[in-house]
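note to self: the first set is below, dont mix up w the second
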Amino acid sequence: MNRFLLGIAFTVAPVVASASCPAVTVANDMGLQGAFPQQFELAEFEQAAGCTLAFSENPDVSALNARLVGNPTDLPPVAERLPDEPLVVAPYEQIGQYGGRLRVMANSTESGTGEILSMRQVNLVRYSDDLETIVPNIAKGWSWNDDFTELTFFLRKGHKWSDGHPFTAHDVEFWYHDMLLDENVVEKVRGIWRTGGETFEVEALDDHTVVFRMAAPRPGLLAAFGDDYAQPFQPKHFLGQFHPRVNPDADKLAQAAGFESGYDVIAAYYGGSDWKDVPTLMMKDPAKIPALPAAVVPTLESFLIAEETSEGRRLVANPYFHMVDTAGNQLPYINEIDERYIPDNEVRVLRLINGEADYKGHSMSLPDLPTLLDNQEKGDYEVVLRPKNGMHVIGFNLTPDDEEKRALFGNRDFRVAMSHAINRDEINSVVNFDLGRVRQYVGFDPVPAFATEDQVNYAIEYAPEKAKATLDELGFVDQDGDGFRDLPSGKNLTLNIQFGTQGMPATTVEFIAQDWNAIGVKTTLKEVTSDEYRAAQSANELDVHLWNQGETVPSVLASPEDFIVPFGSFFSLRNGMLWARYNESNGAEGLEPPAWTRELEEVILAWQLQLPGSEESKRLGRRAIELMQEGFVFTGITEAPTPIYRSNKLKNVVFPKMQGAFRHVYSYRPQQWFFVE
């Protein structure tokens, strides 16, 4: 018996319309609603509307395709490029018009690019813009078995990669077994792709059906596909030719292209990680491109990278993208994305107020809100405030190489005292304009109903005298009379804080430093790029970690890494790097983590296996928060809304319900954005 059988089972090939279809939008649904909000399967739409849908294409599609180095230049008609079963989406406001260049800014490649990534992102399923409903995307449907140990996806017949080659279930199977589980390609598989510590069995039952089998129930796996940045498919026809497991002549083929092995070619294309927003061969080794099949790997995304330099990159519309609007126009409407790397926040703000961008939500800072609001008319844009996924969080390095620092930072009483030294109300008033909320970090964001008030308010009281008394008791006192506390050995201690404004506003960090200096803990600041910060954090070089942290309940169901040493990913806040090294090396390197970290991991993994909303799920969720706070790895500062910027010429835009959640704008279908003059 199948549970939660979802998706539409119609199989109707597109034909020339004999009756025009209604131009359904979200604003005017004309009485037509599908099984899922704001979208239809083709047969479902045609049956409901009593019509057959004719397909149209972007008139510039051939010119755009010609900019893709190595992509076949002879494009078949649009009806042959679309799947037999395209996804029909209802635009928010109106049927759009083709053309235009979307101007966006990122801090740098791999840094601040999450929003741009989400503008082109696809996965088997996605969250709708209510951030609760999972809907079909690349897959047209799915089904669970009774005990949530098997998840089956049904793919679209006739779906094609961006080079026109058929996309099938074998590409999903290839991604999991030959890419993700091959240590020559991906060194370590993230926990999101394991259940109960064991990898999945992934099998293509036929060209359009693929099943994920798990060793234990995993009802949250569907959320992983709806939320995660990784794409659970890779083009076997393209990467497989260089994979020794797939092609016995892979190394020979690679050597003819100037590489030592097939794995070297895959690394050049794939980057050794399922995080795909990394520099392409256009940046890494452009001289190798002429000997390879194409400059970039074929994709199912709405846009492909056509040009890349150290200053930015250009992306153009995918001629084989699987979505159409309700008038039959192939999406996306916009021709290209122009992404510029602007590491300086002041320069980014200046460009925004001058109207030199079309959309910006990622890495926006609340202190910049007055400037942005004052210049809306001049720059011809709109700025709104939305809740932000996560909160500003700090954490003392629990495993620094310096043993005396390790003893001090590892003392929980020290960390609690430093929390009490922070005047959060002042930060919320001055930095957040009293728009935020002072609370403690609980791992989940927004705070779930199963969290207690005591957990939300733990150790956030501003009590500098209490903090100083605790530090005195620990022997962390001023021994040389310079006004600042010294380590028990008499050695001076200066907290040299490095921070990136993508993770926390400079003003917030300045207030924290001011408060710590006021209790005699010497603190200095240095602003660095996000990439520099992440590299230093991963190398265990920082005294204090600062970032925006906290995931939605569905996101933690998908991947509970924020509760498992080192308590986050490379792109977020991490701590206890030597504990992580110990776990990764089975005790050969690093430092053994304390027992509470193992219990926390066991609890969150058990929580992940529960049916969401059940009493056992709530109990385990509360216990996970309790253990996180017993360890006091991180301390929360404030949560606050964030500005989001949109050019008035950009239409069909719905601002996110929560910025940063579920792949930023991914849920809000940027493929149907368009420009008007």
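second set (the one i keep forgetting abt)
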Amino acid sequence: MKQRRSKLTALLGAATLTVSAMGSMTVMAEALEKTAMTPGTYCASAAGLKGDVTVEVTVDEDEILSVEVTDHQETDGIGTVAVDELPGKIVEAQSVGVDSVSGATFTSSAILEAVQACITEAGGVADEWMEAGTVEPTEKTEETLEADLVIIGGGGAGMTACIRAEELGLSTILLEKMSFMGGAISISGGNQVVMGSELQKNAGVTDDSVESMVEDFMANGADLNVPELLTLYAENVGATSDWLQENGITFDTESGLHQLAEYAHDRELAYTGSGAGAAEAMRNAIAETDAQVLLSTRAEELIVDENGAVTGVKASSDDTAYTIHAKAVLMATGGYGNNKDLLSEEMQTALYYGPVSSTGDGIVMATAEGIDADTRLMEYGKRYPNGVEVSEGIAKSTIGGNIVGWTMSAILVNKEGNRVVNEKASNRTILETELEQTDGELFLLMDEETFSVWKTKLGGAGISEEDIDGYLEANGTAAPVFAHGETLEEAAAAAGVDAANLTATVERYNGFVQSGTDEDFGRSAEYMTMEIGDGPYYLVEQKPRFATTMGGLVVDTALEVMNTSGEAISGLYAAGEVVGGVMGDDSPSGANNGWAVTSGKLAAENIAAAIQ
């Protein structure tokens, strides 16, 4: 793999600034007087996405000599990019005012906070190290490239397309605006539909079918799905799953298929190492090819010839303006969940937990005047019912813990203290019920035994046990609500839940456990084996969250992008979340990852056939 990264062009004693559209920034050395530090090596930690990030900083009286991250639990390929890149930037710029690594904000903030603590411990003044010089703009160099295929976006769809295109002999350039490849798949729950695969058959399911999968998806998507695209997906996801396995993107076959309410047959598997593991395996597979990967390089404009055919793309990094000519362009730019201008009013009120990179770039470029790509279902997004609001408007997921909680004694209640839904129903059913409740939320009720296990299962979603300790200390006085008490009454008071009803609900539920029958909502006896036992008791907020958008570009079954006149735009294809209509207004579990890899592989195959 030919890989090019934007490099910080900073001289000692200067601050890094965000790059403007005019060009990169050259830092001019201009040392500012600072409080002298005591020479030595200092150690400090700060909270990252998945736990504490520990750094060691060596200083002399007036310089930062080295910064090293000595311990962390951050996500491979995302947080680890900040671990690899940010310490060098701090030393090079002699500043803690450097920009965070895009997409790794939590890890970046932890490193910068810990470095500031070390400076303070050394007797320095951290604020004096926020700025360290002046900057002047410089002109970008211009470079022209050529390839058979240029892929815009390095998420699941883009990486899969890149692997397959190179396998088919296409010269390929992949553009990724972030400093790493990964996209939404890398922070997903790491599950995928594998219907029709040898993987599914080997796990004991031999009677699943395209027709069954289409029926399940249509029911889940309120019949708004595009039947042709959904059928294309169902017919090809099995072969794609087996192809992934053969190419080192493997599945956790030991844990087996997941049993889900959305599906008539068990057809979901987890990736080995979850979503982060799948993304890492894809990056490794691309590294074995001749593909040219341009990281920290944003596609800005499609190149169109006089006949309206797309023949390439203009892109830009910190220091280079690229003109890339290609026989085909594949949009694999992901969704638009982090662009409120493209979201419906309803979706703007849901908590967001997706990648910062999901800003709808592909939709904006493809719908520009002169290209006029069509879109569909832009008002819809995939909402889940199990978010906790970790900062204003931003959610993290508790689903990893909830799955275990349902095998123990966890139940869902509303503010009135009542159960209102089968906790093992589909996410869609639980969400619809949740939205009908007071303040549009539910609470997860757990006893001490269940909570002690539940809290250990949230690390994959970026909720560390240290985070939980902080939430518990607030005890309902700040978001997210992790209320608790020695008695049900105390926990209810902290959460603002009706205590009398809650007590009655627990007594009634425990009676169902004893009888083996949930007379209210039909929760399976298989998931009602433990009574709600001794306290302390915990009530954790459950709010709607979303990451994935359902709308996007209109494509045909060859994954060619269609214009507003219903005609295919020559040379322009799309795959993954940027395509609208496959899921309808909602997506079932494992569906989005499955569509990303299936459509990415198919797009590469269709492009190769068209070119060759």
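remember for set 2: The CA atoms of residues 202 and 297 lie 42 Å apart.
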